[in-house]
Every structure is written in C-alpha cells, then in structure tokens.
UniProtKB/TrEMBL annotation:
It comes from Colocasia esculenta. The keyword RNA-binding applies. This is CPL domain-containing protein. Residues 27-67 are annotated as: Disordered. GO terms for biological process: regulation of translation. It comes from the Eukaryota. The keyword RNA-binding applies.
C-alpha cells in the first residue's frame, strides 16, 4: 500500500510541478504539503568512504531482484534512503520533470524566493543521482541560465536582469562557487569579454565569485580579465585563502 501511495502522490506532483516550484498559492496546502516534498531530497548524502550512497544505489540497480533486496534492506526490513531516493526521483520520472520545469522557467524561478532554492538544489544535486542519470539535461539547464545572463542590460525594460535581481544574483553567485561546470558555462556564454559591464551593484557578486572560487580552473578562466578590474578598484573581491596563496 505504501508503494501504491507513493506512485499516486508522484503522479499528482507531476501534474502540478510547475506550480509547486514557482510557489503558486493554488498548489500549496495540497499534494505538495501532504507528500512532504522538500528540495533537500535532491541532496547527495555524505559518505566517509569516498562513494556516495547514490552511487551505490545506481550500481546495484543492475543486479537481480533478490540480491538487490538483500543489499538495500536495512534493519526492520526498510529500504535504505539512497534506494528510496533513486526510486522516488529517477524511476518515477519526477526528477526529469523537475529539471525540465527548471529549464523552462529558469528566469522566474531564479527571481523568486523559493524557486531560487529549487534551481540551486537541482543544479548542485547533479553530483549524485541527477548527474549520473541526467547529465545532458543538467547541461541544458546550465545553458538556459547562461543564456539569460548573456542578455544585454536594458534601461528601458521593466524586467530586472538576472545578474541585477537580488534573489537571482545571489543564487548565481552560489552556483559559481559550488558548481565549477556551471561556472565555466556561465563565463563562456555570458561574461567573457563583458565582465566590466557587470562589475558594480548586485551583479558584482556574480563576477567576483569567479576569483573567490575554491576551484583553480574557475579562477583561471576569469583571472586575466578580472585582475585588471580588481587592480583599478572597479571590482571588489573578498580576500580568500586562494587569492592569498596565488599572491
């Protein structure tokens, strides 16, 4: 009965997924709350042995049913969290629908208080189940966000650019710091040769993140162009241990 209940909830979630991630009033208080859906479901659990539980779950799905049950049943006859996460997100089709919803509504999600958290979890959740199963779709999500960043700033438009909006600028900054693959896509598509335009205001948080990244490849992408802005005082960068070491 629990399995059947999960399937029913997932099917209902799929029909209102866009409303849920956009935090629409008509979706709240219904299936979303009753199912206990949270963006943290996408997070990869920590593992002390260098391999995530999600990786283990992916490998074991190819084994026969009896060995799978033996491997993934824990004390009390319950499935472990990694297998349940894989079944609920991947096998149900919910994760794929969620990624597609993020691609199709990236601008609106990034600029909403709840939606930006969904975008962040989906993009960074790619290190676990999502990255192994849907790497191409996650690349498409990176490109969708980068294409929004590549749009020119318009003084006449009432719509804020995603680099200048309070919510989206901070979310994109976090993604640059935490997801090197996304950072590389964003730099090449939206910021290379244009960084000076975005060196002030909310957008400066996005630009400075490239030099503050703990990933040397991300820093190297932007260092040549950004160092001149830092030296001239046009761009403020928080002093980090990475910058100190390079100096």
């Amino acid at each position: 009965m629990q399995e059947l209940g999960a399937v029913i909830i997932i099917r209902e979630l799929e029909t209102i997924l866009k409303q849920l991630v956009l935090d629409k009033g008509q979706a709240s208080g219904s299936v979303g709350e009753s199912s206990g859906m949270q963006t943290s479901t996408l997070e990869t659990p920590k593992c002390d042995y260098g391999t995530s539980d999600d990786d283990t779950a992916m490998k074991n799905t190819d084994k026969d049913a009896s060995s799978e049950n033996n491997l993934h049943l824990v004390e009390g006859g319950k499935k472990d969290n990694a297998l349940r996460r894989y079944e609920l997100l991947v096998e149900s089709g919910l994760a794929e629908s969620l990624i597609e919803a993020c691609i199709g509504n990236a601008c609106e999600l990034l600029q909403s208080n709840f939606g930006r958290e969904v975008i962040y979890e989906v993009v960074t959740g790619g290190t676990g189940v999502l990255g192994q199963k849907f790497s191409d779709k996650l690349d498409n999500l990176h490109e969708a966000i980068a294409s929004l960043g590549a749009l020119p700033r318009s003084e006449e438009s009432e719509e804020e650019h995603i680099f200048e909006n309070f919510h989206s600028s901070r979310t994109i900054r976090k993604l640059v710091l935490d997801c090197p693959a996304f950072a590389a896509t964003l730099w090449k598509a939206a910021l290379k040769g244009k960084a000076e335009i975005w060196a002030q205001g909310h957008s400066s948080k996005v630009v400075s993140a490239f030099l503050e990244s703990s990933d040397s490849e991300v820093r190297d992408l932007a260092k040549t162009e950004l160092q001149g802005l830092v030296d001239s005082g046009a761009l403020k960068v928080a002093e980090t241990r990475h910058l100190k070491k390079e100096d």
